Amino acid sequence: MEQNNKYTFTVARIAALFPDDLSEKLAFVQRELGGEVYLVGGSVRDLLLGRQPGDLDLTVPRNAEQWAERLRDITGGTYVELGREEDAARVVLRQGLDVDFSSFRAGARTIEEDLEKRDITVNALAVPVHDLLTGRCQDQDKLPVIDSIGGLADLEQQRVRVVGKKSFSDDPLRMLRVFRFAAVLDFTVEPDTLEQV
Q: Looking at the domain 8-149, which fold is it?
């Protein structure tokens, strides 16, 4: 696992993503359901690019739909199922913020294994937020960016690269996502990825 000190966020910076008392409500859910919680994907990518994430992408080892149902119950938000097979759901909060929950991908036992099953490397980044939710860290403490497959280097090089050779066979729609992210981020598509498409 690559955890370069150059890529960290203060607890205060990550906490600022959670409006009002959302972190307290997520902490309540965490106490009920237990487990690790990670900010992942586009949320982390956007922060590293200096952009405000449009939503919060959270990954838990299992029971993502239960996390979303409990957050809905506590906040009065709207629950949206994103896929039973993938164990993913969204809660649309009254503030207009979406909180997406997903469980580790099939067969993944750790966050690193989960990241290795994602679509493109710049979306395969994570920041552990479980200590933030439980109050076991201070505002000035640093939270590392977890990168097990080179997404940080690809972000620096402004390139879109597929995570693995099976990525497109696992989900052919990922081919379209490569070009969508290249256009949205104004990145180039890495040559081997382009060849696979």
A: Beta Polymerase; domain 2 (3.30.460)
